[in-house]
């Protein structure tokens, strides 16, 4: 067998956060795997994504023995604000739930994971393009393709489909078995990074009659901001001046007045979508993370949900290989989907509360305002929000 033909316990398609965390947890439990990645690792490590980790996700990083940097460099946040025009409500996560969240960029999570994947010597076939093919029969599965133009083939007991929304794994589940549930929102988020002091020390989810804006951060000198934009817009349509003007108009004026602005060092537009596929297991294939579901980013759930999938799947695989117990693996789809749908609900609700949906629909604007007013008055409602934001148990 040459070095490009491997035999491992689990073949993992996609080396994003889901795939690499799964590979690491399996390795720590003596289970072998190999990763297959469409892009170059350099590309994977440079992607800028969201930055809020639930305690459950930080615990998963600790379990994977990559908890040091997130503990020392991650910023613990005890709350955040939701605003409507100049009215502001602080969601006191710590008081309402006894827990905090950690602000730590997904880019950093990916770097931490890649470091240990390399140290562990987990085989990684990169730059495969769309070549990977997944084949399954009664007693094994094969993932094959070309990496940097050279053919490879991985034989495994199981395949983990961790290849994101546009990957191949989900499409391996036949149409008559798979059901997709989807909502595409009629707006996108334009995001920028700028080397400026964050507008506030906590996140601000801002809304008004014109739409949504988010003030977030990576560190004391690196801010991350978003504004709701049209799905037709291109990043080039938005000069920095236009971006700052719209952002300042949507956040409370007392914050806008004092905020530092500067050149953007990254600017991109992302569409907003809710998506779930059922089931997320078919024969020897198990889907994890964005391959199985998408949430709009408003609840900061994307990466956190991917990590809870990895929790359930790694548990199932460890019990299967190490304890000869198939129960958790057989129940993976049902168990993971129960939590996925609750996170979908929360992300959809936050999105509905904070965005302008339709220029013509003034009734919806009033409903959003009424929802916000009720949230201001009801600590029970705030607690429900807070419990979802800090992360449902798993
Ligand atoms: N073959 C191999 N790899 C693929 C293929 C393919 N056909 N298609 C996509 N990939 C790779 C992508 O290049 C990417 O590196 O799979 C990886 C999937 O990573 P993510 O999209 O980051 O998905 P996931 O690991 O589930 O992480 C979910 O990260 O993407 C964010 O918003 C997302 O926060 C969420 C979290
Ligand atoms: C981010 O910092 O990029 C971020 C934070 C919270 C969100 C979405 C994105 O809900």
3D architecture notes:
Strands 1, 2, 8, 9, 10, 11, 17 and 18 form an eight-stranded mixed beta sheet that branches. Strand 17 (281-282) and strand 18 (285-287) form a beta hairpin. The model has no long low-confidence stretch (mean pLDDT 96). The chain has a domain at 4-48 and 106-183 and 273-351: FAD/NAD(P)-binding domain (3-Layer(bba) Sandwich), CATH 3.50.50.60. The chain is α+β, with helices and mostly antiparallel strands and 394 residues long. It is built from 14 helices and 19 strands. The chain is globular. Helix content is 38%, strand content 29%. Bound molecules: adenosine-5-diphosphoribose (APR) and P-hydroxybenzoic acid. Adenosine-5-diphosphoribose (APR) is lined by residues 13-19, 36-39, 44, 49-50, 106, 128, 130, 132, 162-164, 166-168, 289-290, 302-303, 306.
Q: Tell me roughly what share of residues is in helical segments.
A: 25-40%
Largest β sheet strand count, sense and barrel closure: 8 strands, mixed
C-alpha-based Rg, rounded: 21 Å
Q: CATH superfamily membership of one domain, which one?
A: FAD/NAD(P)-binding domain
Count of individual helical segments: 14
Mean pLDDT: 96
């Amino acid at each position: 067998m040459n070095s490009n033909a491997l035999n491992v316990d689990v073949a993992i398609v996609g080396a994003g956060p889901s795939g690499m965390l799964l590979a690491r947890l399996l390795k720590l439990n003596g289970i072998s795997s190999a990763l297959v990645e469409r892009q170059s690792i350099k590309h994977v490590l440079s992607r800028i994504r969201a930055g809020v980790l639930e305690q459950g996700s930080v615990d998963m990083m600790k379990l994977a023995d990559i908890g040091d940097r997130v503990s020392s460099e991650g910023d613990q946040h005890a709350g955040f604000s939701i605003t409507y025009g100049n009215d502001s409500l602080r969601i006191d996560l710590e008081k309402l739930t006894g827990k905090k969240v950690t602000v730590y960029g997904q880019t950093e999570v990916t770097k931490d994971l890649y470091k240990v994947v390399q140290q562990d010597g987990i085989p990684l076939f990169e730059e495969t393009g769309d070549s990977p093919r997944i084949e399954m029969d009664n007693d094994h599965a094969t993932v094959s393709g070309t990496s940097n133009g050279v053919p490879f083939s991985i034989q495994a007991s199981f395949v983990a489909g961790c290849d994101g929304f546009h990957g191949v794994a989900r499409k391996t589940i036949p149409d008559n078995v798979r059901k997709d549930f989807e909502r595409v929102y009629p707006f996108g988020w334009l995001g920028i990074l700028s080397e400026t002091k964050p507008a506030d020390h906590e996140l601000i989810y801002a809304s008004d009659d014109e739409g949504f804006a988010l003030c977030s951060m990576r560190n004391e000198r690196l801010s991350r901001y978003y504004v709701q934009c049209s799905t037709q817009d291109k990043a080039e349509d938005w000069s920095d001046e236009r971006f700052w003007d719209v952002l300042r108009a949507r956040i409370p004026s007392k914050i806008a007045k004092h905020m530092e602005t500067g050149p953007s060092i990254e600017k991109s537009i992302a569409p907003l979508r809710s998506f779930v596929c059922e089931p997320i297991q078919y024969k020897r294939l198990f889907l994890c993370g964005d391959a199985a579901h998408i949430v709009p980013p408003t609840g900061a759930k994307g990466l956190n949900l991917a990590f809870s999938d990895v929790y359930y799947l790694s548990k199932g695989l460890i019990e299967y290989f190490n304890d000869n117990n198939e129960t958790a693996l057989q129940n993976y789809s049902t168990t993971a989907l129960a939590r996925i749908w609750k996170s979908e609900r929360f992300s959809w609700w936050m999105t509905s509360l904070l965005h302008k949906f339709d220029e013509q629909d003034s009734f919806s604007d009033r409903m959003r305002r009424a929802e916000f007013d009720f949230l201001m008055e009801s600590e029970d409602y705030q607690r429900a929000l807070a419990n979802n934001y800090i992360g449902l148990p798993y």
